[in-house]
Write a structure and sequence with these properties.
The protein is mainly α. The protein folds into two domains: 70 residues; 89 residues. The protein is built from eight helices and no strands. α1 packs antiparallel against α2, α3 packs antiparallel against α4 and α6 packs antiparallel against α7. The radius of gyration is 19 Å and the shape is globular.
C-alpha cells in the first residue's frame, strides 16, 4: 500500500499525459501530490521532510510550466529533486559529519560504519547520475520519450539500484544474524 501511495502522483501523471498531454498531466501531478501529502498527514499525523520538499518542487516547477506554458520546467523537476536528495546526503556527511541514511534506516539495519559510509556515497552518486540522465533525456528526446523514461526508465533504474544495494548488504546482514556481538566489534 505504501508503494502505491508513493507512486500515486507519478502513475497519475503518466496516465494523464497519455490521455490529455503534458500540461494536464502536470496539473494532475500537482493535485495528486497535494492529496498524497494530505492523506499521509491525516493517516500518520506527520509527513517526512523529503515529502514536503517533493511537494514544494512539484508545485514550483509544475506551476511554472503551467503559468508559462513551457514544459521545460516540469522536465527539470526530477533532476532538481534527485540533486536535492543527493545534496542532503552529501552535505550531511561532509559538513555535519552525519550519515542521514543511517539515521533513517539504522533502527532496521545493524551495519558497520564503513558500510553506512559506502551506502551514503553510493546513493549520493546515484542521485547525481539520475539527475543528469533526466536532463539529458529531457533535452535530447521528445516529451513522450521523456515521460516514458520517467515512468519506466527512472523507476527501473531505481529498482535495479535497490537490488544492487540489497545484494551488497546481504553479506553484512547474514553476518549480523549469525553473530551480532562479533559484528559490533568491527565497527
Amino acid at each position: 500500500m505504501k508503494l502505491l501511495i508513493d507512486f500515486f502522483p507519478i502513475i497519475l501523471f503518466f496516465v494523464a499525459f497519455k490521455v490529455w498531454g503534458i500540461y494536464a498531466a502536470t496539473a494532475v501531478a500537482i493535485v495528486a501530490t497535494i492529496i498524497q501529502i494530505a492523506y499521509l498527514r491525516i493517516k500518520n499525523g506527520k509527513v517526512e521532510p523529503m515529502q514536503w520538499i517533493s511537494l514544494g518542487v512539484i508545485v514550483v516547477f509544475g506551476g511554472a510550466s503551467l503559468l508559462f506554458q513551457d514544459e521545460t520546467y516540469i522536465k527539470l523537476k526530477p533532476s532538481v529533486l534527485y540533486w536535492l536528495m543527493g545534496a542532503v546526503l552529501l552535505i550531511g556527511h561532509v559538513v555535519f559529519k552525519k550519515n542521514f541514511l543511517k539515521k533513517l534506516m539504522g533502527a532496521q539495519l545493524q551495519l558497520p560504519e564503513s558500510v553506512w559510509t559506502t551506502l551514503n556515497w553510493a546513493w549520493t552518486a546515484f542521485f547525481a547520475v539520475m539527475g543528469a540522465l533526466n536532463l539529458w533525456i529531457a533535452h535530447a528526446f521528445n516529451t513522450d520519450t521523456w515521460v516514458n523514461f520517467k515512468m519506466f526508465g527512472g523507476m527501473g533504474l531505481m529498482v535495479l539500484f535497490v537490488i544492487g544495494q540489497a545484494l551488497y548488504l546481504s553479506r553484512y546482514l547474514k553476518d549480523a544474524e549469525t553473530s551480532p556481538t562479533q559484528e559490533r566489534g568491527h565497527e
